[in-house]
From TrEMBL:
PANTHER family: CHROMATE REDUCTASE, NAD(P)H-DEPENDENT FMN REDUCTASE LOT6
Species the sequence originates in: Reichenbachiella carrageenanivorans
Protein name: NAD(P)H-dependent oxidoreductase
SUPFAM superfamilies recorded: Flavoproteins (SSF52218)
Highest taxon in the source lineage: Bacteria
Domain NADPH-dependent FMN reductase-like: 3-129
Stored InterPro entries: Flavoprotein-like_sf (IPR029039), FMN_Rdtase-like_dom (IPR005025), NAD(P)H-dep_reductase (IPR050712)
Position of the signal peptide: none
């Protein structure tokens, strides 16, 4: 069974990004070991000095989960035309490693607009040598209008696009 680690760039409970990741989890439950990492808000501020001398246990746990995964899905909002600081911090804890090198990764930016955050995330993950394919990248603009009060994605095209990205990621593993 393939193992996918999902990372939400949002720390908000019941965020739109959490809705997207839970939608994926529901659709993959029978065929994929799917875990949503919920600790980016618990990671300390990135400090390269700690990388060699006293790596925090939560950082090691995060790195272990990335290493064990066959593929990664990052789903993030856009804050002030960029990535949320907590997501950038989580990624920075991996810059001294090769954990993302050749690792199949899907990028989903679900926000009001999302273009600038998407560009930043794509550049960062390309720099880390992640295995990114055009078919494993998705921007979902206006995400809040595509989710109903029951916290379900009601927009059919959005659901189809999400599943296409996930299937493309699974094929690239």
């Amino acid at each position: 069974m393939k193992k996918i680690l999902a990372i939400s760039g949002s720390t908000r409970r019941s965020s739109s990004n959490e809705v997207v990741l839970n939608y994926i989890k529901t659709h993959l439950a029978a065929t994929v070991d799917f875990e949503i990492f919920d600790g980016i808000d618990k990671l300390p501020h990135f400090n390269p000095d700690l990388d060699n001398d006293g790596l925090p246990a939560i950082v090691q746990t995060f790195r272990d989960k990335i290493q064990a995964a066959d593929g990664i899905i990052i789903c993030s909002p856009e804050y002030v035309f960029s990535l949320p600081g907590s997501l950038k911090n989580a990624i920075e804890w991996n810059v001294s490693t090769t954990l993302f090198s050749n690792k199949p990764v899907a990028l989903i930016v679900a926000s009001a607009s999302g273009q600038k955050a998407f560009e930043a995330l794509d550049l960062i993950m390309t720099t880390l040598d992640a295995d990114l394919q055009p078919s494993t990248k998705l921007i979902i603009p206006g995400i809040k209008g595509k989710i109903n009060k029951a916290r379900e994605i009601e927009d059919v095209e959005t659901r189809e696009n999400i599943l296409h990205v996930v299937q493309s990621l699974l094929q690239s593993i």
